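Notes on consecutive records. When two proteins share a document, each keeps its own sequence and its own token line. Never mix them. Below: protein one.
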Amino acid sequence: MNINYKDIVVIVMTAISISGCKNSPEVLDTFLNVPEYQIDLEFEPTGENNEIKVSLDHIFKEDDIEYISLKPTAEGDGLLRMPVAFYSIGQNWLVYDPRNKKSSALFFDKDGNFFKYIGAKGNGPGEYIATSLCKINREQKRIELVDGGTNKILFFDFNGQFIKSIPLPLLFSDFIRDPYEEGYYLYTLDNFNTGYMKDYGLENDYVLTKTDSTFRPQFGIEEIISHSDVIPYRNNGNKLFHYENEIGFINNYSNDLYLIKHNKIESLISFNIEGINFQPKDYIKNADGNRFLATLEKGYSFVGDLSISENKLLEYIMVSSPDPNRRYDPVFLYYDLDNKNYTFYSALEDSSDTYTIGEFYLHPLSSSYDAFAMIQPKDIEEMEGSSSPVRQKIEAMLKENRNNPIIARLKFK
């Protein structure tokens, strides 16, 4: 689908110093007033509950799909409980499964065979109680796990060996390494940190906080003035990202994406979607009560997760549902930043009617495929007796891997 879009020239605003910050650079302290690069889209569901079913072949080369079954050992090591994220590290697969009883992060080889747990549940060195975030630091070749149970971050190398852990001085829902200097950007998004900030020369909490390599705050971007009873929605989806060697972030309540370039903020893209309502831009700092429920109950939607490369983007949008028994409906936006084409879908269906794909992960580092996803197969009982080669393959994989996930490696058309 081609879009009707309007380009609003991005004006780089003069940087403003943040008062009260120790050792802070000249940096723009707000992003709400940055001129937008606005894109107009139309969302037109074809079924109930915002349903849009699209052929998998509309986006990907279906004949070129490679399936990888994530197989546990005979003893049951590597059985997954509720995986929430998948990462490709070299030829191996890292699965983040925080509800797993043994370990939150599990390694599978290129053929899908389980071979290692990353850390373990516990209180010792290299152990954690309840992880809330898993990040891949490709520059330093580290796996970084945040343990919300002890408020610390643990570092492992790409072989799964424990390096160290450090305590965290504040709370956040996403983080990313600064590509230009030691330290991180944190997506904090609530006022729970206000009491801590004075220890670092800051008066309040911020939507974004820049820290040093030990997560000690240095300065903030967009001061939070939300009500004291605000309850942040910590879905831990990706809100920070790397884009052309810069740090990017999303105001996921208004669906506006920004870049931090040379300590100034620019609009990357601002989606105005006819058929989906988002909160006003300043809601991100002015909210009260339960953000998640208040947004959906008022008929607004927000972005729950994001995957982006230099020329493509996928958003997982939690759309307020018309069904009173459902809080939201999952809708995905696939957008091509080069040719401005886009597709909305609730599910991508394969031609053999064996499985669907919801969210996929862009993988620009690979030369052999463009993205990967966990497929969602139909029940084995529905597939038995089918003559479709794809159905027979998926059925055999599910029996072999004891219903562990199957990953599809995908190539764009």
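Protein two starts on the next line and is unrelated to protein one.
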Amino acid sequence: MITESHYWKKPLLAGAKAIRKYMDTENVSEAEFARIEREIFIGFYSIRKLLEALGKVSAETRDMKVALRRYNKRADQPTLALRLSGNLARLLRTGGPT
């Protein structure tokens, strides 16, 4: 149960800031990719928990639709390139609505 959302939102913003560094990067190291993957996984879990806790996010955020796109790994590429689009990319770049 989330009683104080600040403790969930602050790490989300830090994770978005970490991911933002790699938004336009084609080549990331294995360690960097692992961090990106971890931030996304934990971030979406946190978002789900905040959405489940009534009154912890604005109606604008609750009603937001996010389009995701998946890219298959190329044979010559050791890690996947990160590609985000639409509202999710905007949220990560700007810090978005709360």
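For the record: The two ends are 19 Å apart (CA to CA).
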